Amino acid sequence: MKTLVEHAGKAGRHRTRDRAIILVTYRHGLRVGELTDLKWNQVDFKHAEMHVKRLKNGTPSVHPIKGDELRLLRKVTRECDSKFVFVSERGTPLSRSAVAAIVKRAGERTEIALSIHTHMLRHATGFFLANRGIDTRTIQAYLGHRSIQHTVRYCELTSGRFQDLRD
Q: Catalytic residue at 56?
């Protein structure tokens, strides 16, 4: 993820915005529609929190914002005069296809052997949390899943899943 974020910021007029798109999508496990609809009133700079509104009848939640992400979002505020966090040059919210193109382009710059798309960032969040040993219910709440069945797939492949079962 670090490489992807770095490569998103290496070219183009909107380097800061593009880096923030990838970092915010990954850190909060956002769907592309949740990202394109993200508004500044959901970002609390004072308390370093983001109010995440979920699509697909998902459960909303409040997520912490880490320092590097907070600094990046502050830079984006200086480049943007809209109620939406991520906007086009015309000041309108970015489309899903525009976000998909930004993520794909960043992936191509990294020379990673697979084609990267926006929903992979959400999946990466789930797998990252599971591999850190975060319990399934917490991951469910973080990703906004109504049903635990959507969350268990992240925990099925964790390498340390059976570590505590041995003597």
A: yes
